[in-house]
Specification:
Rossmann fold; globular; 3-stranded antiparallel beta sheet; 7 helices; binds S-adenosylmethionine; alpha/beta
C-alpha cells in the first residue's frame, strides 16, 4: 500500500487552495487533478478544504480527478467507497473529522460524507502514458510522485502538466521537489514557503504533447 495520509503537508494544500479559490470563482466547470493520489486521502483532503473555502455554489461546480497507476488494483474501490480504517483518520483535525466523517457501527472504519465523495472521481492512469484525463485544470497536485521517475520522464510529465493546466493555473508539489530543469520559464513560484507554481503562458510547440484524449478508464 502506498504511503500517504489525510492532510499530509497541510501547509502546501492550504496555500494551494488559498490561491486557487479566487482564480476559479465564476467558472462553471472547475477541475483539480490529484496525480498519484494513492488511496485517495490527499484527494479527499483537497475536497474538504475546497468545501470549506469555495462557497456553496462554486463547490458545486468542482470535480477532482484523482489518478494513480494503482499497481495493486486496490485504490479504485477504496476511493469510490470513501471508507477508511479508524487508525487512518487519527491525524485529521477534529473540525474536519466531526464535519465530514461518520463512524460505522463497530467503530473500526470511518466513511467520508457522500457530499464530498461525489466530487472525487478516481481514474486508473499511468502518468508515463502522457495522455491526460482532460485539459483545463485550474490546479494540479502532484506530491511525492515525481521521485519515482528519471529526469527525462519528469520532463515529459512536466510538459503534460503544463499542457493540461488552464492559462494561469497552479501546480503544487512536495516541499523537496524543485521545478524540473527546463521549465523555469514556464512556471513561476507563487509561494515562498511551498512548492506552489503558476503556469506562465508561452508559445513553444516543442512543449506540446501528442493528442489530448479523454480516457474512458473511469472507476
Ligand atoms: C507516495 S505515494 C503519494 C501519494 C500522495 N500524493 C501523497 O503525497 O501522499 C506515490 C504514488 O505514486 C503512484 N505512481 C507511481 N508511478 C506512477 C505512474 N507511472 N503513474 C501514476 N501514478 C504512479 C504510486 O502508485 C503511489 O500511489
Amino acid at each position: 500500500m502506498a504511503f500517504t495520509y489525510f492532510f499530509r503537508d497541510t501547509h502546501t494544500l492550504e496555500k494551494s487552495i488559498e490561491q486557487f479559490v479566487p482564480f476559479v470563482i465564476g467558472y462553471q466547470n472547475i477541475y483539480i487533478w490529484d496525480a498519484g493520489c494513492a488511496s485517495g486521502q490527499e484527494a479527499y483532503s483537497l475536497a474538504m478544504l475546497c468545501a470549506e473555502h469555495m462557497g456553496y455554489f462554486a463547490f458545486k461546480n468542482l470535480q477532482i480527478d484523482a489518478t494513480d497507476i494503482d499497481a495493486s488494483n486496490l485504490f479504485a474501490d477504496i476511493i469510490r467507497r470513501g471508507l477508511y480504517p479508524s487508525d487512518q483518520v487519527q491525524r485529521i483535525p477534529p473540525y474536519y473529522h466531526q464535519k465530514y466523517f461518520t463512524g460505522n457501527e463497530k467503530g473500526d472504519h470511518y466513511g467520508i460524507d457522500s457530499k464530498l465523495c461525489k466530487h472525487v472521481r478516481f481514474y486508473k492512469h499511468d502518468l508515463l502514458s502522457l495522455q491526460p484525463i482532460r485539459t483545463n485544470y485550474s490546479l494540479i497536485v502532484c506530491k511525492n510522485v515525481l521521485l519515482h521517475f528519471n529526469e527525462m520522464e519528469r520532463r515529459k510529465i512536466m510538459a503534460l502538466f503544463y499542457q493540461c493546466l488552464r492559462s494561469g493555473g497552479f501546480l503544487a508539489m512536495e516541499q523537496t521537489q524543485k521545478m524540473i530543469h527546463g521549465f523555469e520559464d514556464k512556471f513561476t513560484l507563487v509561494a515562498t514557503d511551498a512548492q506552489l507554481y503558476r503556469k506562465i503562458d508561452t508559445v513553444d510547440n516543442s512543449m506540446v504533447i501528442s493528442d489530448c484524449k479523454t480516457t474512458s478508464a473511469y472507476y
